[in-house]
């Protein structure tokens, strides 16, 4: 057991959630999920219909393109599937969305996407191939069909006002028409969690019916019986399938004050400085876009308290985003007692004198804040497991924290075991590049089912 200065312990105690607190969160999440399935308004968890009736079954074949807009990253992928028993191959290119585009106009955003697509198709000699496209748009949308999605609100630092309440497939198609000489067709639009679920189901089989993304933001989707989505009038909407994937959008949980008891002063500061104050608290407690900021603010306080760096000031730590979440992964990626990355990071933060005592504190702060996030995600997943009442399920997990944070998967698994009734068997199965691959797979499902 490490002995930390009492000032550090006092702050970190606020981030350590006990079992009762997590159970309480989990129960409230379950209630909100049930309410979200019954009513369009009122629940902090929206439970949005996706119009996707089935998951890929492995027999898919052909070439598909996926466009995946998730936070600052725009990924475009060419996926080639050769049918049952084979692993799909893919080529992917990443493009970065500039800050001014994230807060600019719809025209700027969709022209940027189309320009990247044009470049991608040229690079792979696909300009005339007219390939079907799956489009991942990882922001909350009300779907009107598998090819029509009305943007409800932005998250993850985006704020493009003229896109709100607009059909983002229509916006993409308009931009394609204006800017591209060749024809491409959008076969399906979906949330990134739907893509993640599809990719995992394709890889791990039909027992996989839940998808969770823990990336810049955090959200989930799962296969539900259409009859249990009681707010959804399937007949009136012309939907005649027994099942449908539901996108929970659980990142909004907390907007009615459900998390007030556990928010620390540091969380409140991160929230106050964010583009969407008071919203997406789960993203802010668990997502990669924010947890580095929470760590930074704690470290900055510890400098003020004169426990870190022997009280020498560290101006860099007072600058927004000077402690990106990738630092957390690098620090926790080292064996205990090794502090190479931590030393380098202190140098990057321009701290003049630093030593082992500081590294131990920094490492502990990174661990405790990551662990809190993983525990909250586990509480939310266990709510979903209870709601589904399945005796055995595979949960497809993906996103930056699963892919790059060295201890996240293990922490999530341990907490989930602690919070889930012993009779429910679950397995966390990772699928890298999941959302993007899944989009291509869902486009194939849409073609097969003639949706
Ligand atoms: C978005 C979700 C998305 C999640 C993970 C959240 O901020 O609102 O729609 O699935 O991030 O990317």
TrEMBL record:
It is an enzyme of class 2 (transferase). It catalyses: a D-hexose + ATP = a D-hexose 6-phosphate + ADP + H(+); D-glucose + ATP = D-glucose 6-phosphate + ADP + H(+). Residues 7-201 form the Hexokinase N-terminal domain. The keyword Kinase applies. InterPro entries: ATPase_NBD, Hexokinase, Hexokinase_C, Hexokinase_N. One of its GO terms (cellular component) is mitochondrion. Its EC number is 2.7.1.-. Keywords: ATP-binding, Glycolysis, Kinase, Nucleotide-binding, Transferase. One of its GO terms (biological process) is glucose metabolic process. GO terms for molecular function: ATP binding; D-glucose binding; fructokinase activity; glucokinase activity. Residues 210-445 form the Hexokinase C-terminal domain. Pathway: Carbohydrate degradation; glycolysis; D-glyceraldehyde 3-phosphate and glycerone phosphate from D-glucose: step 1/4; Carbohydrate metabolism; hexose metabolism. Pfam families: Hexokinase_1, Hexokinase_2. Belongs to the hexokinase family. This is Phosphotransferase.
